[in-house]
Input
Amino acid sequence: MFESLEALTDPLIRIRVEAMYRELLDTDSSYKVLLLESDQCFQQLRNALPEEQQKAAFLYEDTQLSLQAILERSIYLQGFKDALYLFNELQISTHS
Output
């Protein structure tokens, strides 16, 4: 059962998180500036490396992106659980 729930939620979470990133880019100028600066800095670092170390930098970046995706999913699910808990607590307190 858990696997089927996970299979259903993963695409929804990915879509929602991607939408949130797009919204941040459109509405938060600080986020956009920091994102561009971060990308530029990483490009400079990668370009300054010898070719054989550029592969290691690429693998590092790829690993970081994978870690970020796992973290985003966990944070999203925990926020959902927290909202359900809060909703349940509010229901209990209004019926008491």
Q: What stands out?
A: The mean pLDDT is 90. Helices lie at 2-27, 29-48, 51-95.
